[in-house]
Design a protein that fits this description.
single chain, alpha+beta, seven-stranded mixed β-sheet, 3 helices, 33% strand
């Protein structure tokens, strides 16, 4: 049986692919997936993933947040054709910390069924750390990787506007 610190928080799906939960410190988190094919038609079944929290109150390390995010991502990847793009930008200077944290979660929780590709895009002072995640048995993975590489080779500023 999992210890309480390993269990996800109870969360609610507000609308399709849009979730929220409250952690032990009373901080509300919003996790949502936005379709990429609206801007990039080649990115079928690919979604930008975002995590936002209300307020800026600092809180202690809370492993249940990771467990909750992973539970939501597992639910998302139940559809084999789904792919996810994670963008860490430098608007608050914490892009590298977010990428390291997300990579740590990925390495710890990935059961070998997911793959990822990453890229870094710089333009002047602006930096984007971008990764795509998909199931190994995704029938569209070659197209996903090709589309991701093409997207990274162009100006992708419009993704984060």
């Amino acid at each position: 049986m999992a210890s309480p610190s390993q269990l996800p928080y109870e969360y609610e799906e507000i609308v399709e692919l849009n979730y929220e939960f409250v952690n032990r410190d009373g901080i509300r988190y919003h996790l949502y997936f936005t379709p990429m094919d609206v801007l990039y038609p080649d990115m079928v079944n690919t979604y930008s993933f975002n995590i936002e929290r209300e307020g800026s109150t600092p809180h202690s390390i809370d492993r249940r947040i990771a467990a909750t995010v992973i539970d939501i991502l597992n639910r998302f990847f139940e559809k084999v054709e789904n792919a996810m793009i994670m963008v860490c930008d430098n608007t608050d200077g914490k892009q590298e910390k977010r990428r390291v944290l997300f990579n740590r979660w990925f390495d710890f929780y990935n059961d070998g069924t997911l793959s990822s590709r990453s890229a870094e895009v710089r333009e002047g002072y602006y930096q984007l750390l971008v990764s795509i995640y998909f199931k190994n048995d995704n029938p569209n993975k070659q197209q996903l990787v090709s589309s991701f590489n093409e997207l990274m080779s162009r100006d992708i500023y419009e993704i984060v506007v």
